[in-house]
Design a protein that fits this description.
alpha/beta, three-stranded mixed beta sheet, seven-stranded mixed beta sheet, Spore Coat Polysaccharide Biosynthesis Protein SpsA, Chain A, globular
Length: about 270
């Protein structure tokens, strides 16, 4: 492992140690190993941190945790603190409820381009599939096989199945399927210099579109999106969202739209 990793993988975390360990198991199986894990911990309990740290200490992953006190949903603040402590010049963002495919890091690094960010995606798992995976009902390689996922309760819909097509077909789908090229915090990447150029994530934002708003500012600064939704994949474990307060989501939407209007005004002027 070189002194400076090729990428810093910033993983958002808040309690749910079983989910986070599932995600970290995925990073322990990557085809490239020249990366660091930086946990952006939005106030996990001591018990949760201890469970995850015990697992990490038995792994070969290069990692560190950046933590602050639990004071409600402050993901943007802890992301900025975590990024400030990264050592690579390229940043990959994901969440602690997402299990990366084995080529996740390798593809983010091979598809990166100066002046661009990558807009990737995830397969949103059903509650039965999530329960089976967390309960050990699917082996750690089988969960990346479409037939195996269907066997443990994942609906057999095209929008899920297409994520398991051969690589050439997924590349074509990224070109022809009209999916928005937004910055998605569960699977996206950018250069650290570009994160700094736009002032990082907007810490005025709570839950809802906080990652999309960051992407709008990246584009306003001339950083162009590349759609790789079907090529770079993760499995998104199902869970409830007790922090998703309607009032806060609406406030975030207003901030996002204000940012968009400001960008448009700036472009027109």
């Amino acid at each position: 492992m070189p002194d400076a990793p090729s990428a810093s993988v910033v993983v958002s975390a808040y309690n749910r140690p079983d989910y986070l360990i599932g995600s970290l198991r995925g990073f322990a199986r990557q085809t490239r190993t020249d990366f660091e894990i930086v946990l952006a911990d939005d106030g996990s309990s001591e018990e949760s941190r201890a469970a995850v740290d015990a697992w990490l200490q038995g792994s070969d992953l290069l990692w560190r945790r950046v933590w602050h006190e639990d004071d409600g949903f402050r993901k943007t603040a802890i992301l900025n603190k975590a990024v400030a402590q990264t050592r690579a010049d390229y940043l990959i963002f994901t969440d602690g409820d997402c299990i990366p495919f084995p080529d996740f890091v390798a593809l983010h690094l091979s598809l990166r381009r100066p002046g661009h960010f990558l807009s990737a995606g995830a397969v949103r798992l059903s509650p039965p599939a999530t329960s089976s995976i967390l309960g050990g009902g699917a082996d750690e390689t089988g969960i990346f096989q479409w037939n195996r996922l269907k066997a443990i309760g994942q609906p057999g819909r095209f929008k899920f199945a297409r994520m398991f097509a051969p690589a050439p077909a997924r590349r074509v789908m990224d070109i022809v399927i009209p999916v928005k090229r937004t910055f998605n915090g569960l699977n996206a990447s950018c250069w650290k210099a570009d994160w700094a150029k736009v002032g990082g994530f907007n810490e005025a934002m709570g839950y809802g579109s906080e990652d999309v708003e960051f992407g709008i500012r990246l584009e306003a600064a001339g950083v162009k999106p590349i759609r790789v939704r079907h090529r770079i994949r993760a499995l998104h474990l199902d869970h409830d969202r007790p922090y998703a307060a309607a009032q806060e989501v609406e406030r975030n939407r207003a901030i996002k739209e204000a940012t968009r209007r400001s960008v448009r005004s700036g472009v027109q002027s």
